[in-house]
Design a protein that fits this description.
Elements (H helix, E strand, L loop, with lengths): L7 H13 L6 H16 L6 H13 L9
Helix pairs in contact: 1-2, 2-3
Length: 70
């Protein structure tokens, strides 16, 4: 199954859903990354080079889980 999200409002609904019904598997790490990216976008940090680099760095971690260093 593939979910396509087209707005920040849709992302907020997903975040709220998993806040109410937390994931208990490896995908929880990806959910945490999604929340971080959403926060960067909501705060308009994605409009700066530094903010965009943060998002790219978070994307690199997607589907891998979070390392103990993070």
């Amino acid at each position: 199954m593939k979910l396509i999200v087209q707005s920040t409002e849709e992302i907020e609904k997903i975040i709220e859903h998993f806040y109410q019904f937390p994931l208990k598997i490896k995908k929880f790490a990806d959910y945490e990354l999604l929340k971080k990216v959403h926060s960067l976008i909501k705060n308009k940090e994605h409009l700066t080079i530094d903010g965009l680099n943060k998002i790219v760095g978070l994307k690199a971690k997607h589907n891998r889980g979070i390392s103990p260093k993070l």
